[in-house]
Amino acid sequence: MRLDVITIFPEYLEPLRHALLGKAIEKGILEVGVHNLRDWATDVHKSVDDTPYGGGPGMVMKPTVWGPALDDVAEGKSVGWQLDSAQPHVDKPRRDDLTGRSFEGYEGEAGDKPLLIVPTPAGRPFTQEMARRWSNEDHIVFACGRYEGIDQRVVEDAANRYRVEEVSIGDYVLIGGEVAVLVMAEAITRLIPGVLGNASSHEEDSFSDGLLEGPSYTKPREWRGLEVPDVLLSGNHKLVEEWRREQSLQRTRERRPDLLRQE
Ligand code: SAM
Question: Where along the chain is S-adenosyl-L-methionine bound (predicted)?
Fold first, then answer.
């Protein structure tokens, strides 16, 4: 998969080079280009914003800068600053390599136009289901807004060369789109076959079956007077499965009853 991010703060995207995503870049599963929007600004001040029509506080990002930037990135005319992996990763055998499980290749059909994701609090809520679908894309471009956001005509015009999605990561307002892009990029790319060393780990994650995942425990068996639940030590897989399902339902009932109503 190729990810391109257009932003006025390219340094914000640095975390994409680290840990599992850095390793995915090293393995050639993921390519990341980061583009400075100001490269498309034409005035001496490299300005990317202007006052809003109709008045009001704040500034709006200019279509005359965003339009050409999105044109060039869609056509691959700008490769931007290519992120490499933050550090060489120790080539330990991964669990999927040890079990012989192969996850090369995509499951779904990517569209012919790239997918443009525009983060905005006024967008459709981002979900695990979107992350799952978009993990099959070949090319995703993210457009990071700042100030009061991007002139709406940019989104309308971009539909000529992209499939466009305006997406919110939650009911709160951030300063800019960069952090929202990090959230979505991580949620999407961890689902690309081969990115996680153990693919079954995400198959059991929260939301994959519509519920929250229950609690997890590791060694030692007793810690600060707190015991691991006996059933997990029983060796009885059926009982463990039943217990996990019950914990998952209980947690979902308590914390996210809205998820149960969607079932
Ligand atoms: N005036 C906008 C509104 O009220 O909907 C808020 C603009 S916000 C200060 C600036 C930028 O931050 C947005 O263009 C978007 O890129 C990003 N942003 C802020 N909150 C977000 C959220 N909840 N989800 C996704 N992006 C967000």
Answer: 145, 169-174
Q: What is the 3-state secondary structure (H, E, C) of 138-185?
A: CEEEEECCCCCCECHHHHHHHCCCCEEEEEECCCCCCCCCHHHHHHHH
How many helices, marked H, and strands, marked E, lie in the chain? 9, 10
Calpha distance 90→100 (Å, rounded)? 20
pLDDT digits (tens, 9 = 90+) for 191-216: 999 999 777 777 788 898 899 999 99
pLDDT tens digit string along 112-149?
A: 899 999 999 999 999 999 999 999 999 999 999 999 99
- 210 annotated to a ligand binding site: no
The count of domains in the chain is 2
Cis peptide before 88 (omega within 30 of 0): no
Judged by phi (left if over 0) then psi (alpha if -120 to 50, else beta), residue 175 lies in: alpha
Whether 135 and 176 share a structural domain: yes
Domain assignment present for residue 255? The answer is yes
Q: What is the DSSP letter of 124?
A: E
**Is 172 labelled a binding residue?**
yes
Residue 171 CA, chain-centre distance (Å), reads 17
Q: Are 138 and 220 members of one domain?
A: no
d(CA 121, ligand 1 centre) in Å: 5
Catalytic residues, by residue number, are 121, 148, 190, 205
As a whole number of angstroms, the distance between CA 161 and CA 151 comes to 17
Q: Distance between CA atoms of 117 and 144, rounded to whole angstroms?
A: 9
